[in-house]
Write a structure and sequence with these properties.
Layout lengths: L6 H21 L3 H9 L5 H22 L6 H24 L2 H24 L9 H19 L3 H10 L5 H25 L5 H24 L5 H21 L1
Helix pairs in contact: 1-2, 1-9, 2-3, 2-10, 3-8, 3-9, 4-6, 4-8, 5-10, 6-7, 7-8
């Protein structure tokens, strides 16, 4: 076990990962922000973010491979430069901010994100067709920046862009998945360069891996039984409370 990691922390990590990847698999987004927020209550953000990025990469790879014929590569190519810019900005701040400031910044961001979840659960965001491409590029950069810095919350912003394209549900889902896969790959490369995959981080990652798979299997069973608006509001409440705790901690 890595220095500074206790048994109860790893047990809490296992529980959070199961819940978060159940949310991610069933709802399509929200799992990353939920996991980051809850795990940051017991681990430094500099540990949480690299761990969740690897888990997201592996989960996205599995789905992308199974449905590769439906991937909309043209749209992914359009967003890739924006993704790279956002990742670079997030990596810069992650390397500059200390753990205390980063935790409080995460708390403030999560509260704002929870408000966004509440609003969009009732009224999905729509962008006028005439400005859809430039807005999509900006959203891609912002999504990549916040995901690199805070470990989650990219999905809803990418979903605004892809949701305006009128895609079939299966195409939407796999294109979103591969977009997040590319984002995660760039983030992993950057985190490795910052030296974030140390002994503690790798210990937490090793514990989390099997529970990611369990969460995904649970999601397969419950996805069709959930009332989406109620589900999103529940996630929003959890994020709101957790964000407030991070700010006050």
């Amino acid at each position: 076990m890595g220095v500074g990691v206790t048994g109860w922390q790893l047990a809490f990590c296992a529980l959070v990962i199961v819940v978060a990847f159940t949310v991610r698999g069933a709802a399509g987004f929200g799992g990353g922000a939920l996991a980051t927020t809850l795990l940051a209550l017991v681990f430094p953000v500099h540990v949480v973010v690299p761990v969740l990025t690897v888990l997201t990469f592996l989960a996205s790879m599995e789905h992308g491979i199974r449905h590769k014929e439906e991937i909309l590569w043209r749209q992914i190519a359009f967003l890739t430069p924006s993704i790279a810019i956002g990742v670079a900005g997030g990596l810069y701040l992650l390397g500059e901010l200390n753990a205390e400031l980063l935790r409080k910044a995460l708390g403030a961001f999560v509260i704002a994100y929870a408000a966004f979840v509440f609003v969009t659960s009732k009224r999905p965001v729509r962008v006028p067709a005439g400005v859809a491409r430039p807005v999509g590029a900006v959203l891609g950069a912002i999504a990549s920046f916040v995901a690199t810095l805070f470990g989650g919350a990219a999905g809803p912003l990418f979903a605004i862009h892809y949701g305006n394209l009128g895609l079939a549900p299966s195409v939407f889902r796999v294109t979103m998945t591969v977009t997040l896969l590319i984002l995660a790959g760039l983030r992993i490369t950057g985190y490795t360069g910052l030296g974030l995959y140390d002994r503690v981080t790798l210990t937490v990652l090793a514990v989390a891996l099997p529970f990611m798979w369990i969460g995904g299997r649970i999601a397969d069973r419950v996805a069709d039984r959930l009332a989406a608006p109620t589900f999103y509001r529940l996630v929003g409440v959890i994020l709101l409370v957790s964000g407030a705790v991070l700010l006050l901690k």
